[in-house]
Specification:
Number of domains: 2
Radius of gyration: 21 Å
Strand order of the largest sheet: 1-2-3-4-5-6
CATH class of the largest domain: Alpha Beta
Distance between the termini: 44 Å
Shape: globular
């Protein structure tokens, strides 16, 4: 072999190693940037929704009454199966998430309450923040990460906070009318919610607890199907700290209302889970963080949780 050929091969090998190293380090960012090129799908199904609970509001939204003061608003034709929760008090209502923004959710909300509505996003991903500009009173969890997104009084999520490249969406801009501190109480009049910082899926994730009703509104902390812990800003260690804290503080008979459908045993309906499911997720997080066997696939690597869920993770150096 000539010196020229040998040197060329060495250079190509070194370049391959360098590219592989860079790809591994920045895997979550490369994954989301390549998403539109790797997957083809209909954002909204052309087929009528086939729901198992609730009533269709129109040809897109479904409304499911959870109790006299709580409604789940679903988007069963949207490919991510989002559910938004309208939580009603005597003086005002709180909408947890703003809908995907694929359709205007305001008429649905107006049909359920005439009270002033505050919108609180569970986190900043496009499928939860997409409909926020339809509302005047937007609240935000008060964290350094969210405060840093405000410039000249206007909130705009960063590219890897919003992840709009998934659906070709542009990040919304809006004014935050109410900053909510982690651990604080949100008084709706005759009904109180506790706002909890629940980092893991993202660092800005928030959940709501209705102590009296024993309800946890979890956003993307936990939900049926694959729990995403491999996108930018996800953290296994933060996830595990969150699950352990909730397991130690919430009653065992707490019902968890999640943001993505569907349960394997119910079809298209508001996705609920139990504390046992949270315990199973905590165990899967510990298994993944310890690098134990049992995971499948390359990226994301998935770990079984139970019959309702799998946990999708990144490489150990990405997930912290």
């Amino acid at each position: 072999m000539s010196i020229l050929i040998r040197n060329t091969l060495l250079i190509l090998f070194a370049a391959a190693v360098l590219l592989g190293t860079v790809a591994a380090i920045f895997a979550p960012y490369i994954y989301v940037e390549l998403w539109p090129w790797r997957f083809s799908y209909d954002e909204v199904s052309s087929q009528p929704a086939e729901i198992t609970k609730g009533q269709m509001f129109d040809d897109y939204f479904v409304v499911e009454k959870l109790d006299e003061r709580t409604f789940a608003i679903g988007e069963p034709r949207y490919y991510q199966g989002n559910y938004t929760y309208l939580i009603i008090g005597e003086k005002r209502a709180l909408m947890f998430d703003s809908g995907s923004g694929m359709r205007d959710i305001r008429p649905v909300v107006a049909s359920l309450t005439k009270l002033p509505v505050t919108v609180l996003p569970s986190h900043l991903h496009f499928d939860h923040l997409g409909g926020v500009n339809a509302f005047d009173h937007v609240a935000m969890i008060d964290l350094p990460q969210t405060r840093n997104d405000v410039v000249d009084g206007v909130f705009k999520p960063g590219r890897y906070e919003f992840l709009g490249m998934f659906d070709g969406r542009t990040a919304p801009t809006f004014e935050v009318k109410e900053w909510i501190s982690p651990g604080s109480t949100i008084d709706l009049g005759g009904r109180s919610l506790t706002a909890l910082a629940v980092p893991g899926h993202t660092s800005q994730s928030v959940a709501l607890v209705d102590v009296q009703a024993r309800q946890l509104f979890a956003g993307d902390l936990i939900y049926p199907t694959m729990v995403y812990a491999f996108l930018p800003d996800a953290s296994l260690s933060a996830y595990r700290e969150t699950t352990r804290r909730l397991l130690a503080s919430l009653p065992e008979n707490t019902t968890i209302w999640s943001a993505h459908c569907c349960r394997s045993d119910e079809g298209k309906a508001a996705p609920w889970l139990a504390m046992g499911d949270l315990r199973d997720l905590d165990h899967a997080l510990a298994t993944a963080a310890a690098g134990r066997s049992g995971g499948e696939g390359f990226y994301p690597r998935s770990y079984p949780v139970n019959e309702q869920m799998v946990l999708g993770t990144s490489f150990p150096w990405n997930n912290r």
